[in-house]
Amino acid sequence: MKMLINVPETVVADGLRGLAAAHPDLNVDVDNRIVVRRDAPVAGKVGLVSGGGSGHEPLHGGFVGPGMLDAACPGEVFTSPVPDQMARAAAAVDSGAGVLFIIKNYTGDVLNFEMAAELAGDEGVQVTTVLVNDDVAVTDSLYTAGRRGTGGTLFVEKLAGAAAEEGAPLDRVAAIARQVNENSRSFGVALSACTTPAKGTPTFDLPPGELELGIGIHGEPGRERRAMMTSREIADAAVDAVVEDLRPDGPVLALVNGMGGTPLLELYGFNAEVHRALGERRVPVVRTLVGNYVTSLDMAGCSLTLCRVDDELLRLWDAPVRTPGLRWGC
Amino acid sequence: MKMLINVPETVVADGLRGLAAAHPDLNVDVDNRIVVRRDAPVAGKVGLVSGGGSGHEPLHGGFVGPGMLDAACPGEVFTSPVPDQMARAAAAVDSGAGVLFIIKNYTGDVLNFEMAAELAGDEGVQVTTVLVNDDVAVTDSLYTAGRRGTGGTLFVEKLAGAAAEEGAPLDRVAAIARQVNENSRSFGVALSACTTPAKGTPTFDLPPGELELGIGIHGEPGRERRAMMTSREIADAAVDAVVEDLRPDGPVLALVNGMGGTPLLELYGFNAEVHRALGERRVPVVRTLVGNYVTSLDMAGCSLTLCRVDDELLRLWDAPVRTPGLRWGC
């Protein structure tokens, strides 16, 4: 598999150098692998820190900035960052108002963020953690116990980020993050496997004419292999899986997310089918985001995330945000 | 090749339905294939219209909105839209201040936009046209005479769009568009071919271990096939090709563009090498955009566009824009 890289060993560092070159608003520590908003720590503001394996860009480094994360810790591709890195990020963004760790539910990430919370606590930083586990496809998987954290992470980071930007205290920001996670559900579909730079070949076999329903964002197995389906059929399957679990009784935000290798033209066509399917099920969609936001390197495919919102969460969604990956209102 | 579609025949219409569902700010006429900003025509404002074959999203439909295009006309995949469609778009956005057609240099697009300008003129709409031909790779190609229009189109649409939004008259908006085109140069590289829905198989053969330098955005042949190169080597080749032709003697805007199938992590790594290469050649980069903006369906690869700017063009770049694909300041 051909890649636009130098050598696999420098992919993450090269990406961070490029992020720094493009976004002077970010403070990128390439050696320690920490991306921090340049004005951190912001006086009186709760600091939001997330991170995880690289390969899901723009998540998380591309979501650092006013109105979203204060810092991100990228690990190697599909590999958890380390506790020292996270503790250093916490120290960099703590204004004294405390820090929230937003953790996608993968065993390595959870262990390392918990250790980092202890390390930061020893240094006098008050840390609260929130787990994101929105993926309804499977319980327990290759890299985790329980449900995986996927597209819902974007909603948690945006909505908790908006609350923190407005000056909400740590317990309130954490409560919003948990509320968002509890009200978010995702389901992903792969049309192709992804290829990590280190391996150089697809991480799993997906024969021509087949797709995998319920895929994770690292190529972990999903619910089932099926003969190739139309966009309409895939939308019905994804909407059914999410709606049956979430049981929305009011407005939702929708994230129609590309896995990295699917053209935007196809994602918009899929969005049309998602809106049709949600309309048939009487689920009102109040905001929709279409694009590559929580990716899996070059995997072809998509995921759907819905987040139930009340007036307050909708207001936080519309609040200004200024990051490389998500930007409006400023 | 597996695709997230229903049938090839409805790919463009499905995409437009999905665009409409996600972006209530746009008025999407699916039957006539016209995307218009909802508040058009804006009193006293010059209308900007572009268009071209689909498959390059977010170009052009994703660049419709305040500060950029007033309307876009998508054709079938890699196929020019038709004159009626363009004339209808012109009528929809004309406030009496006239309309600028921004045309990428492909023979079909040029012929059809010229015919549309006559049709619109017959209906009393004053139309001026500007051609974008920024690709330095080849002169004359599969679909055009002269140089192709590629990534520079984004700069033309953004900067002329900002001028129009500020109330500049038609001759001034057209002059800025021409100035931007004259000061923009692009060079693209393919690591894989793209696959159109209608054909279902890659549009050309690119053997394992080879890349193509100077590729177009429809898989047209480039300058040469070479054994696979590193990101550093590709950046040097692209920067040399662009800089030798543009000969910048001051600040530039840089677009580090993905062709659709290359992960953002790799694009950022490539951006690091582009900045290194430009630094070595003493070219100061004042703004950088990294991502999938002028794509070629699922093609893996990238392009580099540089645009020489003076203080006025830089100010227009920073001016507010609010479109699905490009958004800041509002």
UniProtKB/TrEMBL annotation, chains A, B:
<dbReference type="InterPro" id="IPR050861">
    <property type="entry name" value="Dihydroxyacetone_Kinase"/>
</dbReference>
<dbReference type="InterPro" id="IPR004006">
    <property type="entry name" value="DhaK_dom"/>
</dbReference>
<dbReference type="GO" id="GO:0047324">
    <property type="term" value="F:phosphoenolpyruvate-glycerone phosphotransferase activity"/>
</dbReference>
<keyword id="KW-0808">Transferase</keyword>
<protein>
    <submittedName>
        <fullName>Dihydroxyacetone kinase subunit DhaK</fullName>
        <ecNumber>2.7.1.121</ecNumber>
    </submittedName>
</protein>
<keyword id="KW-0418">Kinase</keyword>
<feature type="domain" description="DhaK">
    <location>
        <begin position="7"/>
        <end position="328"/>
    </location>
</feature>
<dbReference type="InterPro" id="IPR012736">
    <property type="entry name" value="DhaK_1"/>
</dbReference>
<dbReference type="Pfam" id="PF02733">
    <property type="entry name" value="Dak1"/>
</dbReference>
